UniProtKB/TrEMBL annotation:
Basic and acidic residues compositional bias, start-end: 568-589
Protein's recorded name: Signal recognition particle subunit SRP72
PANTHER family: SIGNAL RECOGNITION PARTICLE 72, SIGNAL RECOGNITION PARTICLE SUBUNIT SRP72
TPR repeats: 224-257
Function per UniProt: Component of the signal recognition particle (SRP) complex, a ribonucleoprotein complex that mediates the cotranslational targeting of secretory and membrane proteins to the endoplasmic reticulum (ER). The SRP complex interacts with the signal sequence in nascent secretory and membrane proteins and directs them to the membrane of the ER. The SRP complex targets the ribosome-nascent chain complex to the SRP receptor (SR), which is anchored in the ER, where SR compaction and GTPase rearrangement drive cotranslational protein translocation into the ER.
Domain Signal recognition particle SRP72 subunit RNA-binding: 536-592
A Pfam family the protein falls into: TPR_8
Biased composition (Basic residues): 556-566, 657-673
Residue runs in coiled coils: 92-147
Organism, as annotated: Rhodinocichla rosea
A GO-annotated cellular component: signal recognition particle, endoplasmic reticulum targeting
GO MF, one example: 7S RNA binding
Length: 673
């Protein structure tokens, strides 16, 4: 029996060997299982079973076999297979421990170690690992290692803002060109990056077109990631329409890379912002696809979550927005965006005071990020109209007090509030900061920013009538540049109010009129377009020139003059009324409207009603008390009465005009039978 079993096992091993060479690992697995039925602890058979399961993509089952037979499959025997299964199952930390616990670091383990470090975003260690591999390996996988090395450099440039070093890699493949472009994007060299991507696209087409089995659709699918990066550059350059078009083209291809789809969907959402939210809600589903979290870096995933929170805010999903932003804050307590999103949501709910309190608490807990938070708080105060409080918040940001932008903003805001003293105080503090800072470093000439602040302070004081206070600033400026005539003139003007004698002494430093004469071509100046126009308007014309210009003017008028239309009842024998162009009220013969009886006798009742004799009596005035209508008089209202029927009454202070009454009469006239 033992001989028969040995013979059967030998035959099965031959089958396993043949299937392995042919790549038929499913049949090989069946033969291995038969061998294990004969000897369940056969180490070689167990190893072969694990390899077959890995080749068939059954990583979980392969890991189960390894963990079940730990006594037989020790770490020295099966370390690589175990680490690889953990890596493929996205158990990256476990894979790292398995690699580090192996007694012997084989080349395969070193290759896998580099991949694990990349996934863990430990780029410095990963770079060192790949450099060691390239230095100590010589086989057909050298190009792949160089590609991985360039990918690490690109990741450092993009996520850690590290200036990449020149690796001296020959960019002969589209993968190397693509990684090089990503590194350039990280440095902000967008135009160069676009050229690299175009080269990568060309190399990719050349490489894939050589294979007759590859279709055009396969090429476009491979180019999707390159086109996605091109669209990203367009978006960074402000070409949002072009970027959006290219993004949508990639989505229509339905690429299998869920990471690529998630990034493109996120970028489209950032373009849409608070517009086209329906499209954004559809695109956000692509970011929730299974496996996305294993394809993207931590910063990419974080950016997607931030945009989800913002989208929830834009779509008025307040509870969802708060939930997402709170989750983000718990993951990254020191990050600014979650608390800013929460504050923005509170502002949308008109809870500005609560938003400011939330920001203040964050600023107290995280002083390193207080500057940006306080800028937001100041913006909220300005939106509420509390400009003075906003100024107080801005002045509490010590690291920005001396910045020209901050000084300009504070001075503008204080000027708006007419608080000139506080504005001058801002200038003074900023100038003192530069004086102390410069004194601690060098005693040379003042920096351009320092001099610019002094100049602005002096101009501000002069503008607001503080000439006495401007003198010290002007003297400092003139001391730095004694040839500055403009500053000297300002200084003399300021001293003229304080110390006239000093002003006279300083005026001696002014250059003479001869040295200040400008070389101006008077004829050219007078013949210029602007000067000619002014001269023609202002000059007095005499003699022949006057007649000539008048004649020219008459010719021009005759050309423009059009023959007017005469009225139908025009009589050439009758002299026209010289006051016909004046309004009737302004004519000399206007005597006002005649208030005759006809007006008083106009019936105001319903159509067909009659008026009584007493109602036509002119002796009855508007001041007389109203009487009850006689029987048979209907609903007629006295023409002399000021009482308007209720359905025609207007609110107090808006009496009916004569024009509207006339219009009503006209409408009534049109309604006859």
């Amino acid at each position: 029996k033992m001989a028969a079993a040995a013979g059967a096992a030998a035959g099965l091993w031959s089958e396993v060997n043949r299937c392995g060479q042919n790549g038929d690992f499913a049949r090989a697995l069946k033969s291995v299982n038969k061998i294990l039925q004969i000897n369940k602890d056969d180490v070689t058979a167990l190893q072969c079973k694990v390899v077959c399961l890995i080749q068939n993509g059954n990583f979980k089952e392969a890991l189960g076999v390894i963990n079940t037979h730990t006594k037989v499959l020790t770490s020295d025997v099966i370390a690589f297979e175990k680490a690889y299964c953990e890596y493929r199952l996205n158990r990256i930390e476990s894979a790292l421990k398995t690699i580090q616990s192996a007694s012997q670091q084989t080349d395969k383990l070193k290759e896998l170690y580099g991949q694990v470090l990349y996934r863990l975003e430990r780029y410095d260690d990963c770079l060192a690992a790949y450099r060691d591999l390239i230095r100590n390996s010589q086989d057909e996988y050298e190009e792949e290692r160089k590609t991985n090395l360039s990918a690490v450099v690109a990741a450092q440039s993009t996520w850690e803002k590290v200036v990449p070093e020149d690796l001296g890699l020959r960019e002969a493949t589209y993968e190397l060109c693509y990684n090089s472009a990503c590194a350039l994007i990280g440095q902000g060299k967008l135009n160069e990056a676009m050229k690299k991507l175009q080269k990568a696209e060309e190399l990719c087409r050349q490489s894939l077109s050589e294979d007759s089995d590859v279709t055009e659709e396969d090429i476009e699918a491979e180019l999707a990631i390159i086109h996605g990066q091109m669209a990203y550059i367009m978006q960074l350059q402000g070409r949002t329409e072009d970027a959006l078009q290219l993004y949508n083209q990639i989505i229509k291809l339905k690429p299998t890379d869920v990471g690529l789809l998630a990034v493109i969907a996120n970028n489209i959402i950032t373009i849409n912002k608070d517009q086209n939210v329906f499209d954004s809600k559809k695109k956000v589903k692509l970011t929730n696809a299974e496996g996305v979290e294993h394809k993207l870096s931590k910063k990419q995933l974080q950016a997607i979550e931030f945009n989800k929170a913002l989208l929830a805010m834009y779509t008025n999903q307040a509870d969802q927005c708060r939930k997402l932003s709170a989750s983000l804050q718990s993951q990254s307590p020191e990050h600014l965006l979650p608390v800013l999103i929460q504050a923005a949501q509170l502002c949308r709910e008109k809870q500005h005071a609560k938003a400011v309190g939330l920001l203040q608490d964050f600023a107290d807990q995280h002083p390193a990020n207080a500057a940006e938070i306080k800028l937001t708080m100041a913006q909220l105060k300005i939106a509420q109209g509390s400009v003075t409080k906003a100024c107080m918040i801005l002045r509490s940001i010590e690291e920005l007090q001396h910045k020209p932008g901050m000084v300009s903003a504070l001075v503008t805001m204080y000027s708006h509030e007419e608080d000139i003293d506080s504005a001058i105080e801002v200038f003074t503090q900023a100038i003192q900061w530069y004086q102390q800072h410069q004194a601690s470093q060098t005693r040379g000439p003042k920096s351009p920013v320092h001099l610019s602040l002094i100049r602005e302070a002096a101009n501000f004081k002069l503008k607001h009538g503080r000439k006495k206070e401007a003198i010290s600033d002007l003297e400092e400026l003139w001391k730095q540049n004694p040839k500055d005539v403009h500053t000297l003139a300002q200084l003399i003007s300021a001293y003229s109010l304080v110390d006239p004698e000093k002003a006279k002494v300083l005026s001696k430093h002014l250059p003479s009129s001869d040295t200040m004469s400008l070389k101006v071509d008077v004829d050219a100046l007078e013949n210029s377009h602007g000067a000619t126009y002014v001269r023609k308007k202002a000059a007095k014309l005499t003699g022949d020139n006057q007649q000539k210009e008048q004649g020219q003017g008459e010719v021009k008028k005759k050309k423009k003059k059009k023959k007017g239309k005469l009225p139908k009842n025009y009589d050439p024998k009758v002299t026209p009324d010289p006051e016909r162009w004046l309004p009737m009220r302004e004519r000399s013969y206007y005597r006002g409207r005649k208030k005759g009886k006809k007006k008083d006798q106009v019936g105001k009742g319903t159509q067909g009603s009659t008026t009584t004799g007493s109602e036509l009596d002119a002796s009855r005035t508007a001041s007389s008390p109203p009487t009850s209508p006689r029987p048979g008089s209907g609903a007629a209202v006295s023409a002399a009465s000021n009482v308007i029927p209720p359905r025609h009454q207007k609110p107090a202070g808006a009496p009916a005009t004569k024009k509207k009454q006339q219009q009503k009469k006209k409408k009534g006239a049109k309604g006859g039978w």
